[in-house]
Write a structure and sequence with these properties.
Layout (H helix, E strand, L loop, with lengths): L6 H14 L2 E2 L3 H17 L5 E6 L1 H7 L13 H11 L14 H13 L2 E5 L7 E7 L4 E7 L5 E6 L2 E5 L21 H10 L6 H20 L6 H9 L3 H17 L6 E2 L5 H18 L3 H22 L7 H16 L4 H15 L11 H20 L15 H15 L1 H12 L3
Parallel strand pairs: 2-3
Antiparallel strand pairs: 1-8, 2-4, 4-5, 5-6, 6-7
Helix pairs in contact: 1-11, 2-4, 3-16, 4-5, 6-11, 7-9, 7-10, 8-9, 9-10, 9-14, 10-11, 10-12, 10-14, 11-12, 11-15, 12-13, 12-14, 13-14, 13-15
Length: 431
């Protein structure tokens, strides 16, 4: 640990990275449904004869269109729940369906055809909220997750409460995470990145580089989603700016298309994990950066993304690719030798450019939004290097990077709620 860094901040930031940079197999919202269902089936103790899923609007939005991996191309909430029930291992958490067998894939389809699945909206909870109720002839069990993708808040069997987390009404709500994200600031993040003992973070970052570059390369090699990555390269060439956008988009296309490769996530999202890391790795290769420089740049991009997203919340109408793409621009700025001023202006410039992109669920177009956000991050840096910037009191930009971040969080965390509800109505055809 660097001598100038407060030990509490240092330890907290290491813990944040440990909590955030975890592997996930498949898009995290359907995987959360699969995890919840796997927990419920285990609690029931036998194969359910009926399944009821109560999900928040944001969960329905993010599960509706994405392919669930290890299901032979199935989509939607019932498919995710069936995957968890038939082939899930709840102990693997976000990799709950990573070990599904071919026989189980066939069993899933038969199970979906023969067992009643009911999906109902859940309107009284968090934006990330799922309750799975499973029943056999003699028993019923239910499991609920809330706030984060594996945060179990209640378990019941045959009407008996086996576990229940304290609720908001108790005024003692247990936090879904333990590390205090309120300590994050751009200045503190940069100081931490420059001073951190790399032994404390290298295993996390090595895994992020390995997993996320592998799925990005898979997305470029084969036919996934809308193939945004290959379209970018064919249309605009393969300079480093295009290549960084293309590989990040390709990773998303593969992931949204059900690719059976794990991803190291950020802020609960695989797409955001890909976006904060892949462009930084591509630029590090282009600039012949040292491994140490790459690690420190990834610390910056990861923690800035978490800093922004923490104030917004895990699911909202604000597209998470924006915070991740702008954070990637900050990591790239560091690789070019940028300090606090460069990184802060990069972030403000990029957020001012693309913060209006909304989230309409997980699906192929996420790749295009990632490409646009990474472009904004890169542009934000080079604007500053050419003496250009967006100034305070222009739109949502305020004086100082932290105030601008607060404005983004105000919009994404609360002000866009009505937009979010309208998007969900459109997607579910509810007028």
């Amino acid at each position: 640990m660097g001598s100038g860094l407060d030990k509490k901040i240092y330890d907290t930031f290491v813990d944040i990275l440990k909590e955030e940079l975890v592997p996930a197999f498949g898009c995290t919202e359907p995987i959360a449904v699969a995890y919840c269902a796997a927990q419920a089936r285990r609690l029931l103790g036998e194969l359910p004869q009926s399944v009821e899923i109560h999900a928040s609007g944001n969960m329905i939005k993010n599960v509706k269109s994405v392919i669930v991996p290890n299901t032979d191309g199935l989509r939607g909430i019932p498919a995710a729940a069936a995957a968890g029930i038939i082939g899930g291992d709840a102990d693997k958490r976000l990799e709950v369906i990573s070990q599904v067998t071919d026989a189980q894939k066939c069993q899933m389809r038969a199970y979906l055809e023969n067992v009643p699945f009911t999906v109902k909206p859940l309107s009284d909870g968090e934006k990330l909220d799922v309750l799975v109720v499973v029943s056999s002839k003699e028993h019923t069990a239910s499991v609920r997750i809330s706030k984060t993708h594996c945060n179990v808040v209640s378990m019941e069997k045959d009407g008996n409460v086996l576990f229940r987390q304290l609720t908001c009404e108790d005024k003692q709500e247990k936090p879904a995470y333990t590390a205090d994200r309120s300590l994050l600031s751009v200045k503190a993040i940069i100081e931490f990145a420059e001073q951190v003992d790399l032994q404390d973070v290298q295993p996390l970052l090595d895994r992020q580089i390995e997993y996320n570059m592998r799925i990005a390369q898979e997305g470029m090699k084969n036919d996934w989603g809308a193939n945004i990555g290959s379209v970018l390269l064919k249309t605009y060439g393969d300079d480093v700016k295009i290549r960084s956008k293309a590989l990040a988009a390709a990773g998303s296309d593969a992931r949204m298309g059900g690719c059976e490769l794990p991803v190291v996530i950020n802020s609960g999202s695989g797409n955001q994990g890909i976006t904060v890391s892949v462009p930084v790795v591509v630029y590090a290769e282009h600039l012949c950066s040292t491994k140490e420089q790459l690690y420190r740049a990834l610390v910056i991009s990861n923690l800035i993304a978490v800093h922004i997203k923490h104030g917004i919340g895990p699911l909202s109408a604000f597209c998470g690719a924006v915070s991740a793409g702008c954070a990637a621009g900050c990591g790239i700025a560091y690789l070019y030798g940028g300090g606090e001023a460069d990184i802060s202006h990069t972030l403000v410039n990029s957020l001012a450019s693309v913060s209006g992109i909304f989230c309409d669920g997980a699906k192929a177009s996420c790749a295009a939004k990632i490409a646009a956000s990474v472009e904004a991050g890169i542009l934000g840096y080079f604007m500053y290097k050419h003496g250009q910037q967006f100034y305070a009191e222009e739109g949502i930009v305020s004086k100082g990077v932290e105030k601008t971040i607060q404005n983004i969080c105000r919009l994404g965390g609360g002000a866009m709620n009505e937009t979010d509800e309208e998007i969900i109505r459109i997607m579910t055809q509810c007028d």
